[in-house]
Amino acid sequence: MSETKWPGPKGMIPEPERNAADANLHNRRYLDELLVEMRVIDAYEPDLTLNLFNETFSSPIMMPAFSHLNKVGIEGRTPMQEYAAAAKELNLVNWVGMEPDEEYESIAREGARTVRIIKPFMNHQMILDQIAYAKKLDALAVGVDIDHVFGKNGKYDVVDGIELGPVSAEDLAMYVKAAGDTPFVAKGVLSVTDARKCEEAGCAAIFVSHHHGRLPFGIPPVMALQEIRKAMPHTKMKIFADCSIESGYDAFKALALGADAVSVGRGILPGLLKEGKTGVIRKVNRMNEELSEMMGYTGIGNLSEMDHSVIVHHGNHL
Prior knowledge:
By secondary structure, the protein is α/β, with parallel strands linked by helices. The chain is built from 10 helices and 18 strands.
């Protein structure tokens, strides 16, 4: 019997040598176990248009909430600016992670419709100030990384010398109020319990995610996504998903299982760091082609027609 191997930093590694706590390995395994029915009769070329927060985008594939990619790259520009420029050219939703106001402004000035995600700082005034600044720059939405609270030592994490802190339901409601007419997103939801608390706090959207592996043994976000949709079928919140979305095929599975849009992160990194905007555009265009291919073969004409029943897991419809 052949030995099962998995991708590792230096090639394929045997099953016993994997770090079983690495949630990203479980993401990949779960996504690859999801199979797809074909429903091609009466199928037509699909429309990928995404309508979100009263604006229209070309695809449900979104840029990631990267941060700290600030080393000068192509033509004196940073990778953060380059993938924002790609989002602008492709008409995609752009996301930005932890950046000081001046860095965030340089990214927002690229012109892409951008969501600013803020760390859960222990000092709440820092969060409120960054929400206000995002509103000043006409952010598409603003949100908080609710899953980045603890460090590997079990204490509140410290990032760039700034202490992070807990996020209560009351805190979320305060941030929603501070955002006002700007939609507020809770990023890092991985349970029905937290999803319901976000809804009660008035969040406009949640991002089903474990921050690419912050939680050891974390369940795949696509798995949590299904449970949230089952438990909250009438929620008005938009539901996004990420983690290991590396192809248009992965994106299709997440969308079919209930995501309104998905974010591709590490999938764009090689092209971004090597070629800047051009590499990102090439990757996303290929993902859009793969997504369109899957929608065509399953008879799904647009995003509103996404149907979880085309997905099969180990012979059982989900």
